[in-house]
Amino acid sequence: MRLKVRPTDTHESARDHFQMTSKGNAKADNPVEIHTLQWLEQNHPISFNSPIRTTGFEIIWIVEGTGKLTVDCQEYVIEPNVIYCLSPGQLRQFSTNGKVEGYYISLSEEFAYLAENKQDFSFLTLQNSFGRNLQIIHTTKEIHHELEDILMKMRTELSNCFMLRTEILKGLLKIFIIYLSRKAERQDYVNVPEKDIHIAERFIALLKIHYTTKRMVADYARELCVTPNYLNRIVKKVSGFPASYHIQQHIVLEAKRQALYSGLSMKEVAYELGFTDYAHFSKFFKNNSGMNFTAFKNGSH
Fold it and tell me: Which residue intervals make up region (Disordered) (predicted)?
């Protein structure tokens, strides 16, 4: 991957960026990263060229150039003036066609919530709740300059130990996210009460935490103080599919991530996902994905 270097990038040094692990993600004590794609390609090419499991929120802003972004086995064609937003736990791989300019931003979940206004971040936290893998935002010339100015201010704060640095970063991040949220595609729920949407969103949040130990709708209905039938009905009203479908698909998605990312055998993946009988897991995977695990792992997908 060859990336064009702007004049300002040639003076970047290690102190201008938080260190990254060998897998390309931010270390636990470094909750914010802001890089140009050019710097990232030169210093950590593996972070885009290889499949990476995201540990926090990632924002990839393509200013110029084209390429391909694969997120959870779904392929997207990248293009100029577009921002791609990923959530924690997703599997992504990035490649480019020739020269590309842009920015990479990584935020830990903890730091993201420092912005204090959950509504501002809802398009990030809930973007892949009901089948949407990726939030895609198209930028205009007007918003481009505003966003770039905020990023430059954030990078200045990151490269120095100014007083109240975290507070300033928190405020700048909030403004940046608000700009993005204005342009984000939002899910419209027609004739769905707000309380039903809230229950459906809480179900998805619980599913992401307990999918290895709770595979029955009744498990989640109990947590949410509703009946299984009611939960299935609400989730279907909001997403188009019942709660049982989302449970099955989330487990299959995680199995695919493990197959592509971890290198574990089918038996090991089954164990990681809470299946004591790997033959049962094999049947579950095929019934819900349309192919057997070995074929998927070997690249037949």
Answer: 1-25
